[in-house]
Amino acid sequence: MVTPASFWDRAAAKYDRKTAKGPNYKARIDRAIQWIAPGAVVLDAGCAGGQITLDLAPHVQRITGIDISSRLITFAEARLAQQAIENAGFKVAPPEDPALEPGSFDAITAYSLLHLVEDAPATVRRFHELLKPGGRLIAELPCKEQVGLHFRILIRLMQLVGKAPSVHLYRRAEYQRMFQDGGFAVQEMKIYNPASLNTSVFAIKETG
Fold first, then answer.
1. How far is CA 88 from the centre of its chain?
2. Which of 41, 146, 189, 196 has its CA 20 to 30 A from that of 29?
3. Cβ atoms of 90 and 66 closer than 8 Å
4. Tens digits of per-residue pLDDT, 121-133?
5. CA distances from 30 to 42, 52, 55, 69, 182 (A)
């Protein structure tokens, strides 16, 4: 049986090459740095090969990257060793890992993750639990409106032959409600790079 973890282990090398830094990469990092406080303790959920994790590290107090793929974490740890960054670390784990303590993070980043988990609303609630009061969340995700029918059909066909992961697409309004119901005040939902099909979400944990 192909599990999400085994799929990403198998696809790790190709995916890691595909996610090399592109022309929009620096702008994404700059926006994150502006949103996250310099002294923040950060969780990078779904960190893949750790490129974003390590590029954010110089701008925060501590950052931990997690991913369900042990092979992707191996790539991340190799980059960490090569760059000798002392305030970053990696772990094979999903967001619901009980070793992650509630209220222990100032900020969470989740790039290209929520459409790949089985229960996105539960993951958003988990992010709320993991954040300190007033904690900040950055998510990048494809909204259903931006993903054409032909692309969705292609993904389905690729899934049937094991060439694509399980994907759960939501509409923009559904994501908006998901974050609000999960205890977040959404500050911005914006497409910065139309070519990527991803919407950037910036939200703050509400309390009370």
1. 16
2. 146
3. yes
4. 999 999 999 999 9
5. 16, 11, 10, 27, 26
3-state secondary structure of 188: strand
pTM recorded for the entire structure: 0.91
Length in residues, the chain:
208
Q: CA–CA distance from 150 to each of 50, 91, 154, 180 (Å)?
A: 31, 36, 6, 31
Residue identified by tokens 């923009």 is: 172
Residue 30's H or E segment, with its range, is helix 25-35
**Residue 92 to residue 97: CA distance in whole angstroms:** 10
pLDDT of residue 203: 98
The answer to whether residues 137 and 127 touch, using CB atoms and an 8 Å cutoff, is yes
Smallest Cα–Cα separation from 40: which of 140, 156, 172, 131? 131
DSSP alpha helix (H) spans, 103-164 = 120-130, 149-160
Which of 18 and 7 is assigned the larger pLDDT?
7
Provide CB contacts within 8 A for 40, sequence distance 6+. Answer: 60, 61, 105, 106, 107, 136
Listed in order, strand segments (DSSP E) in the chain are 41-45, 62-67, 88-92, 105-111, 131-142, 184-190, 198-205
